[in-house]
Each structure stands twice: as structure tokens, then as C-alpha cells.
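User: Predict the structure for this protein chain, please.
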Amino acid sequence: MMRFVQVVLLGLVLMSSAHSQLMGNPGVSSNIAYRSFQSGTTSRVPQQSLQVIENESAFRAYWQNSLGRDPRNAPTAGINWGREKLIAFHLGQRGTTGYSVFIENVKKGVDNIVRIKVVEQTPRPGQMVGQQITSPYTIIKIDRGTYSIAYDVSRQEAGSGFMGLTFNDQVPPGGTPLVQTNPLGGGTVPFKTIDTGIYSNVTQQSMLTFDTAADLQLYWQKTLGRDGRMAPTADVNWGTERILAIHIGTRKTGGFSVSVVGISRGNDGVARVAAYERGPMQGQWVSDGQTSPYVLIRVPKNSLKYVMDFQQRQ
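Assistant: Here is the predicted structure, written as C-alpha cells:
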């Protein structure tokens, strides 16, 4: 699948503690200027890896093969390939949501090795997370040059804040339950998260409904810019289930996400989908560039009218 991607793994690709001596800073080192370019939690890359992307055609191939997105929509504008290149780091698959990755610093030693310090953020103990496979990644822009590249990965728990899936008895900062009892009576509606992301072409807060595999594939291609053939249509029993896509609209930076924390059903025939936006924490590193977070959930196909009850982090 990756055979078309022009990937240059320059020099040493070193792994964390196993190469701590090599990752040490021999002699004097200097910081290398870089800029965050893209990041996300969904990719096709199952193993930890670093990829160096040298030109536009290689980037479009990476966009398609590694991220499963339409190469025609790859954000090539703003990259000066004569002076810059991209470095994409993938964590590999994780069993739940709640994981992310960022670059803490980039330094060059007198040995002409550029050392990239990568930080994996993991869920906090007891944090509620979505039960789905994720594969976080981050992409940076860096000046072109002749040097080897090494990386070191460390881990830290995610900072304070409410993230991921919660239940009716959970209380976020501020003390207000996220999912409240419907005043008209009723109960709850089961659901399952099947995909989340931060890039789409939806600019406004909205909720979309899909009742067929063809509709989901078209949405996957037109709205998410991803290969429609890769839409998770097999995860849905279309005779008894449908898909809801919740979008929060455009945000100016990374660091935003959205999750569904519950669905309450009233005796009025309305199912209220409680969608919760999580924004960056104070001082949190975020990627540059606009994002448009979304979440897809699977719900029963019935006569209920689904409406969105949107709540933002305080």
C-alpha cells in the first residue's frame, strides 16, 4: 500500500531508551526551526514510523496511502519544496481514543544528526475513552538540508480537562452533568463511536444522517476528502442501524475535538444527542492551521427524531 510513497528515511531512526546513548547530545547542539503542519488521530499506519517527504508528488501519495484521503485535496499550498520538506511521525495503532502526539523540539548536533523529540500523550488513569482503534500522527515542516535524522519518543499523561466518552453520572468542570434526564420522560439510546477526526470541509455546526452505505461513502469522499471505498460501511447493519455525523464547524488551530457523551430519548419521540466539544487547555501545544472536528456514531434505525444538544467545554 505504501509502495508509491516516496519516503526517505535519512540515516538513523532510533527508538527511545534502546538508543539513549545515541540520542544523547554529543557536544554542542542547536535548535532547528520547524513548524507544525498537520496532525490527527486517524491514519492507515499500524506501526511507529517516521517518514521524510521531499516533494509534492510524494506528499500527495502519502496523503492517499497513509491517511486514506483524496490526494487531490492534499494541502500543498504554503510548502516551498525548494527550501522545505515535511517530516511525518506516526505513533502506530492504539486501542482507544485519548492518544495524541506532538513534536517538543528539534535539535542538530555537531555530528550532523538532527534529533527530533517526540511526545506521546496518553489518557489519564480512569479517563473515559472511546473504544475504537486510533493511529495518531503529526507532520512538521523543516528546512531542507543534508543530515541524518533520529527520533526519541517519550510519554506523558494528557493534562487536565474532560475528554472522550462519558456516562450519565460523570460531571465535567463546573459541576453540570453532561447528559441530563429528559424532562419529558423516556430513557437513553445506545450508540457506538465509529470514527473521529479534525479535518473536514464542514464550516458550521451541524449533524448529518446516513441510512445507506452509498450515502456514507459519498460523505466520506466529498466531506472528509478521503477514499470513499475506505468508509467503514461493513461496521454498520444498515437494516437496523444508521450513522450520525456531528460537526462542530471550523476552528482556527488544532487542539479541538468533539465526542458524543450520551443520547436521551423523550416520550415526545425526540432523541437528544449530547455532543461535547473539548478545546485546548491553557498552555497546550496546538498545531497551526484550521481544523473542523467531527465524530461519527452508530445508532438504531427507528422512528425517533435525532437532534443535537451541543455543549462546549467551560
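Residues 16-157 form one domain.
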